[in-house]
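Quick one: structure tokens for this chain, please?
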Amino acid sequence: MPAANLKVAGAPRSGSDPPRKDKRSLILDSAIRVFAQMGYHGARVSDIAREAGIAYGLVYHYFKNKEEILNTIFEERWTGFLEALEGIAEGRNPTQDKLVSIAALVLNAYRLRPEWVKVLVLEIQRSSRFAEPTQQRAIGRLFQLVARLLRDGQAAGELRADLDPDVASYVFVGALEIVITASVLDVLRVEPGEEAEYFEKVARTVVDIFLNGLGRTDLGPDSKEAGAGRPPRSEAEPSEAPATRARAKSEREGPAEKEQE
């Protein structure tokens, strides 16, 4: 189906003149789809207008150029995303449950809004405009939110107190970002209809690894499997070199031989 014929929520009904706010939202929603399909540099304002089903000149009534449209998409969508995360962080659930909820929200963003996440990952996050102070501060709010949640968990005795929560926030968000990027690049593929269950499982896996690591906790020191995951002993650190064994034997036998003499 041609892009011009696509219908979106909030699009004007035939014969009606939608309010100014609806037209502005329509332009932004259409721009997200166009940027996701064509890339920011490959898209034109006329493509956005065609996707929205409005006159070309009307786009400039709301935005001065294509760059302002992209910046507005980031600022408004990202702000709403952070507000949802802050709602989770400020709740009364245990820290682990909060982390799972945040991870699930982040991962399900791609399932529910794949085009917006694709624009964020490919057109904003990996472009020079991402280094602008305004956007850096906006992204910084995410790390600050997670770090604050981790500090609260430390204060409550739920997390180790000897770890830097700022560094830990980078590790946690970075793990989620890799999963999202793999989804956008189609490296990670999920069977249709199983997305919700899959990303819920991934969210719990990420948090489990983040909090507990990969090491098995069911193995005691005397277990035969306890050393199964350890790296093989290197040649530089042998259990007992032949020369060492021979020297030890010589030292043990030396006094006995002298007594016989």
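Residues 1-16, 227-250, 255-261 have pLDDT under 50 and may be disordered.
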